[in-house]
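By convention, the token line describes the chain's fold. To illustrate:
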Amino acid sequence: MAMEHVFKQAPRWLFICGRCKKRLPPNDRLFRSISTSGLRHAEISDQDTLTPRQAQDAISEAASLQKTTDQDTLPSTASRPSSREDPTAQNVASFRGSMATTLRQQQNRSPTARAGNTAIESLFAESKRSQFTPNAIASSSLADTPLLEVHHLHVYSTKHNTHITLTKPDRHPIMSVSAGTIGFRKAARGTYDAAYQLGAYVMGRIQQQGLLTQIKNLEVVLRDFGPGREAVTKILLGSEGRNLRGRVIRVCDATRLKFGGTRSKKPRRLG
């Protein structure tokens, strides 16, 4: 009786949700699904009139079509939020449901994707069982990699003198000489010629003491920007350093940089 009363009052109107209305064909008289939330009116053309019996048949047919359509294309009703919930929560729940449905469809279509997912899951399970930590991984990788025994050739070049020190891999010095060691005095120690002769002296002494058999890898450490920096570089690249040049694996700069600190000396002004 309630249905008959509704259709007697407004026989040309039916209730349908907005989402289902968008899925209807343009000239379709029968709607495909009916929802109780967010009801809207769908107008029927003037020449169409439905009796209460026809309306009940249409509603039952639409309900059955809705069940089949939801099972094929839409996520489950348990994952669908109600209209009373927060809109943000509705969006999150609908996004999760659509993503889950998409993943299930892709897994059903692609056996390779299923195999890849299974491999990833097994890898995660194995990592959980082994309980790896970053320190453990680092220690295992370092343990597998052999450490190189690297000798160091330190070149400390100032505008007043040049110091060259050869050290073992444990940083203990083998030899340490400067321009004053080979006979230069006072201002002559800061010249380019003094640094060049000092570099040649160090290369000859390394060969005389038989240190080439011990030095497998060499790191050259340059410090400051005096004339001896370029002089020792030319020695290594020249004929004097041909026996040691092939053992150099790294060249680095160890010049000190001051951030703030004490006040510097005033610059010297000549004339």
Observations:
- The first strand starts at residue 13 and ends at 17.
- The beta strands are 13-17, 39-43, 150-157, 162-167, 173-178, 217-223, 248-253.
- The radius of gyration is 43 Å.
- The chain is about 45% helix and 15% strand.
